[in-house]
Amino acid sequence: MTTDTEFHTTYRDCDTRELIAQIGRGNVLAISGGRVIHRPTGVTLPVAHGYHVSVDLAANDTYTVQRLFKRGAKVWVKKEWTEVYCDEVGEIAYQASCYLDA
Questions:
Q1: I need a surface site. Which of 10, 19, 27, 84 has the fewest CB within 10 A?
Q2: What is the pTM of this model?
Q3: Answer CATH for 4-101 from 2.40.160, 2.60.120, 3.30.160, 3.30.70
């Protein structure tokens, strides 16, 4: 996990409505059935069986996409894509949701 200081230097505030538009509503429906958790730096899309896809706006105006596995209070990063551009974020988020293909 990242500390608050590290978190604020790595990510920046994001317009989550614009991010959802860049991912694509069809992709959001395919990934999470339309469920979206809005956060200041991005969104979390719950997939299934404890898996989530997290998309955050990095300080350099690219996105960081993570496949997360949550059990209780513990969170594991199963895979991470960094420096994802806005035109690629939908495809990478969909790939991150395919946890059985990992």
A1: 10
A2: 0.87
A3: 3.30.160
